Prior knowledge:
Low-confidence stretches: none
Number of domains: 2
Mean pLDDT: 89
Strand order of the largest sheet: 1-3-2
Amino acid sequence: MQHGELxxxxxxxxxxMTAPAVSRHLKVLREAGVITQRVEGTKRMYRVAPExxxxxxxxxxxxxxxxxxSLDRLDALLAATPEQQDE
Length: 87
């Protein structure tokens, strides 16, 4: 989002992945509506869809307390001694 629209080659240069792996990830993100793609000559240009990222952020924030509570309970269970777990 910080860099605006970028060609696939620029994304590969910044990723620690092969070009085919980046391409597969871009396809998944495009099909999910998280990014958009347009063709410019022989280049594929990609841009983040801000409304999709906002929807993901809103959902994550709305479920934050549930996950924090669940992870806190899991942490307490894992920290308990075997005798405490039987109680």
